[in-house]
Amino acid sequence: MAKYHKLLVAIDPNQDDQPALRRAVYVVQRLGGTIKAFLPIYDFSYEMTTLLSADERTAMRRGVIDQRTAWIEEQCQHYINSGIPIEIKVVWHNRPFEAIIQEIIAHQHDLLLKTTHQHDRLESVIFTPTDWHLLRKCPCPVWMVKDQAWPQGGKALVAVNLSGEDPYHDPLNIKLVEETLALAEQINQTEVHLVGAYPVTPINIAIELPDFDPSVYNDAIRGQHLIAMKSLRQKFNLDQKFTHVEKGLPEEVIPDLAVHLDAGVVVLGSIGRTGFSAAFIGNTTELVIDHLKCDLLTIKPDDYVSPVTLEEGDQFE
């Protein structure tokens, strides 16, 4: 059961509009809990001001932090006045992703929200290097919020792994579906759909083995995935119309279905072992994400441990 009560919002320092903050307020209004508006800032020029003493450089950093804190307070004032509990914290840190993850670990936040930006021409979501570090290394779920309104009647699409030996017993599959269903019920009563992609016939096999029948192979693979999906949906009493087993590459199937369903969010599982390898399709997850045009929620397994520790780096608050 998803219980997101200690939300951390990574503030975008480059714009007054904060879609991630709006989404966090929306969640807290329905689930309760608290929000921390968090901003790591750093300006290398301040560190290179050798004509100033250490105390003077500290005072300059403090002045910048105070200015940014006041700016965030302006963005939050309307929500605070309406009774939303928001804490504001600005720190001086030269690696934003590290500062954010350390804050999450130190204060046990259970959901991170951060705004992503949409490429006007391609309509796809653009992820910064900081976004990728957070997706790979953050121990709690990460909700990347697109800087556009949630579509009317937008659905949640959960990508599940149907290729394992026992996919309907896969703990991460179960966690993804459980948490998404819980969020849908508690927040906006949206439809939850499951999707699994299965591979097409390898061309080299069809060429090298004259007696190989691609249609038989495809039917067998599809059959295995349909059986796995049926077992998974029955575990959660989902109607068949909410499950989709599609042939093709995951980076094509998942974004295309998200567009077809007018999904508001795609939910992915990640084990984050090498790069950003996902539990259901390995390293193709990065390709899936690159093609999305909606919000993204990534969830780690229960036993995931972030490579970022509290001992790394220094913060000035």
From TrEMBL:
Gene Ontology CC terms: cytoplasm
Domain of life: Bacteria
Record's subcellular location: Cytoplasm
Residue ranges of every copy of the UspA domain listed in the record: 4-146, 175-300
Keywords: Cytoplasm
Role this protein plays: Required for resistance to DNA-damaging agents.
Record-stated family: Belongs to the universal stress protein A family.
NCBIfam families, A to Z: PRK11175.1
Full protein name: Universal stress protein E
Source organism of this protein record: Biostraticola tofi
Source species taxonomy: Bacteria, Pseudomonadati, Pseudomonadota, Gammaproteobacteria, Enterobacterales
